Structures are given as C-alpha cells and as structure tokens.
Predict the 3D structure of the following.
Amino acid sequence: MSASDVKKNAETKMGKSIETLKANLSKIRTGRASAGILDHVQVDYYGSMVPLSQVANLSVIDARTLSVQPWEKKMAQVIEKAIRESDLGLNPQSMGDLIRVPMPPLTEERRRELTKVVKSEGEDAKVAVRNLRRDANEQLKRLVKDKDISEDEERRAQDDVQKLTDRFVAEIDKLVSQKEAEIMTV
C-alpha cells in the first residue's frame, strides 16, 4: 500500500459518509410531501416486516399530500395502521383501495426540534469524517515505520488528507445549512 492508496481510500470512505448524511437528511420531514418520508415505515406482510415501498406504490399528489396504493387490497388496513403507528405523526385516510396521507403543517417548535436533529446528523457525519482522517494518518505512520514511504511523503500525504477532511466538512456544513433553511421556510 502506498500513500496515494491511503488517500484514495480515505476519500472514498468520506464520500460514503456524505451519501449517508444525504440519505439521513432526506428522511427528515420538511413542510413538503416527499415519498422518501415513508421509506423507513415497516409493514407486516404475511408474518415478515418489509418496507412499505415493497407492498405499495408511493407517490406525491400535491405539495401536502402523499398517496399510497397497496398492491393487494387486503393490505390497505395493515399499511394504514403501520403509517399511523410510525414516529412520523401522520394520520392516513383510507379511500377505498387508495390511502391518502396529508402532511400536517409544521409548528415553529417542531421546526426548531427538526433543525436540532439536522445539526446532530451533521455532527455525526463530521465525526465519521474525522475518524477516517485519523485512520488514514495512522496508516501513513505505519507505512513510515515499515519504511515503505519517507517522512516527507508522510507529511505531504497528511496535508492532503487534512485538505480532504476540510473539503468534506465544508460540504457537510453546506448540506446541513441547506436542510435547516428548507425546514425553517414556512
């Protein structure tokens, strides 16, 4: 393994941390309806728990309403119950074989709570990136110890890893501030 391999590996893993942050932020509810909000809702499908998207078609009707179209009519009540019991605070309404899920408007207090959740997600992502920086630096030290690279190469590689870390932390900050702005807009 060389110093460039360590840097590439660190960059790849930091990129995955950003992707995880984006996925986590997409699940946090804003005032607008988004089918991604129901991603983590699990439904009892013949004795096994499966994601809602595997038993129904999810779509956005308008800015404040989602529709859930079960593939089997008898699943409608189970899906409705699963959505109601999720931690999302949603109240689905059954209309025959179609379930409408209106998105209640967010209160000011709830918006502030959600921004705290967003900041927490951002902080977790930063910690992950910093841990990856530490791991990369330890690998570089090991390479110097094994005499695979010189101390000058190690120093340059550590500077590059720090620049990578700074770049990814800045991207995390940008994503968090965008999500906060999205939540606070009424």
